[in-house]
Design a protein that fits this description.
CATH architecture of the largest domain: 3-Layer(aba) Sandwich
Order of helices and strands: HEHEHHEEHEHEEEEHEHHHHEHEHEHEEE
Shape: elongated
Distance between the termini: 64 Å
Low-confidence stretches: 153-168
CATH class of the largest domain: Alpha Beta
Number of domains: 2
Number of strands: 16
Number of helices: 14
CATH topology of the largest domain: Rossmann fold
Strand content: 5-15%
Helix content: 25-40%
Radius of gyration: 24 Å
Largest sheet: 8 strands, mixed
CATH superfamily of the largest domain: NAD(P)-binding Rossmann-like Domain
Strand order of the largest sheet: 3-2-1-4-5-8-9-10
């Protein structure tokens, strides 16, 4: 049987069933994109709490409207499940699971490995598997490919799911099944770019794999960017985030240098970006957050050791960016000291818990590190975030905190307010009017110089 021809036909007439593993910040928007383009999508997740919410048309991600999910559920173009045996029903399987770092800043491939082993268990001939999780170059071919090629059983048609036929030979990639890497490029909360409008890089293990994967993604994105191999696609994703990490580290370092010179880095950046060529503006902050920039560069650092290469720029950038929450606390000490107060015993309010504005994503948020450091130094810390009513347990932190209200009386009660996330919801003039002292890490209060009245920059 010509599995490639059959799968290409299904993709073209949109009868292919798409299975997406991981219904988070990447997988859920992807499910919406396929469903809205008339594909039937099965969303897989190990979190049993998500399944009934999704199947009732409800969203658990702030910037994704429940109406969007309800629409595809009512059109019977989407359903969610935790039953992974249903992977057999899918013609295309897309992996969107986390790839965090462990405590030694080395790749934690547990989620990818476990997902791949589950797929291996149910893999049948004629399926496409695509990995979207950010990872080190070589993952698709070194980790996934051997598992899928060595699938022990060839399943009978899904009408008889409990009947199995022994394999006479291992599965052949590019003939019996298809494997590709296509990195996610989601930017939560960005209204200018969506899953469908962002160009999609695609790298297949074989030419046939690339042809099938490119055909699938071409149905939902305006432009695909085919590359010669999964390794190139994996490396391209890392380059995108390493580029940002290094440049953000540069402005974070310059911020500290310019502070000593009584120069406002924000004014410097505004002046520099008037140059119409050769300069791109990056901005400092209280630290890096999200699941990409603080983590992805170290996947390459780890892999480079295999080739006896040191990634000095990446490691230095990581060191500078990791230091930023500590610098914010140092500035807090200075500001309080100027007003004859100590940090120990002071009441501090952090504005913003999410890692970037106008979303509810807490992954690697520097605000969490700020809370930890401030508490360790004896401060009494509260937070406010209109998108995060309560701080849930994370891999690193177990804070039992709820967002406090921003009333006039509450604001006046704090010795220092630290603006960590510049949500548009905040009434900055109101906050400034009622606050004793403000430390602004995002230039949200738009003051001139390093301090103006009760507002200081960090």
């Amino acid at each position: 049987m010509n599995y490639k021809k059959e799968l290409l036909t299904k993709i073209k007439n949109k009868s292919a069933v798409v299975g997406i593993i991981g219904m988070g910040y990447v997988g859920l928007p992807l499910a919406l994109a396929f469903s809205n383009n008339d594909f039937y999508v099965i969303g897989f997740d190990i979190d049993e709490n998500k399944i009934p919410l999704l199947n009732s048309g409800k969203s658990y991600i702030k910037h994704i409207d429940s109406k969007l999910i309800k629409t595809i559920v009512e059109k019977k173009k989407f359903e969610a499940t935790s039953d992974f045996s249903r992977l057999q029903e899918c013609d295309a399987i897309i992996i969107c699971v986390p790839t965090p770092l462990n405590e030694h800043r080395e790749p934690d491939m547990t989620f990818v490995e476990n997902t791949a082993k589950t797929i291996q268990k149910y893999l049948r001939k004629g399926q496409l598997v695509t990995l979207e999780s950010t990872t080190y170059p070589g993952t698709t071919e070194e980790l996934l490919l051997p598992l899928f090629e060595s699938a022990l059983l060839a399943k009978s048609p899904i009408t008889e799911p409990d009947t199995f036929l022994p394999n006479t030979s291992k599965m052949v990639v590019g003939k019996d099944f298809f494997l590709a890497f296509s990195p996610e490029r989601e930017d939560p909360g960005n209204k200018d770019y969506t899953t469908s409008t962002i160009p999609k890089i695609v790298g297949g293990v074989t030419k046939s794999c690339l042809e099938v994967a490119d055909a699938l993604y071409s149905q939902i994105v305006k432009k695909t960017v085919p590359v010669s191999s999964p390794r190139v696609a994996e490396a391209a994703k890392l380059l995108e985030n390493i580029y940002r990490s290094v440049n953000i580290a540069l402005v974070n370092e310059l911020k500290i240098v310019f502070e000593k010179m009584n120069i406002d880095i924000w004014e410097v950046i505004e002046a520099a970006k008037t140059k119409p060529f050769g300069f791109q503006a990056f901005y400092p902050g209280p630290g890096l957050g999200g699941h990409c920039i603080p983590i992805d560069p170290f996947y390459l650092t780890w892999k480079a050791r295999e080739y006896e290469v040191n990634t000095k720029f990446i490691e230095l950038a990581g060191e500078i960016n990791t230091f930023q929450p500590y610098h914010v606390v140092e500035r807090a000490l200075e500001v309080l000291n100027e007003h004859r107060k100590t940090l120990k015993g002071s009441k501090v309010l952090i504005l913003g818990a999410a890692y970037k504005k106008n979303i509810d994503d807490l992954r690697e948020s520097p605000s969490l590190k700020l809370i930890e450091i401030l508490r360790d130094k004896g401060a009494k810390v509260d937070y406010n975030d209109p998108y995060v009513p309560k701080l849930p347990p994370t891999r690193k932190y177990k804070f039992d905190m709820k967002s406090v209200e921003l009333s006039k009386e509450k604001i006046r009660n704090y010795d220092l307010i630290i603006l960590a996330t510049d949500h548009d919801d905040y009434n900055y003039p109101f906050i400034r009017k009622n606050a004793k002292l403000i430390l602004d890490t995002r230039n949200a209060f738009k003051i001139k110089g390093l301090n103006e009245g009760n507002v200081y920059k960090a």
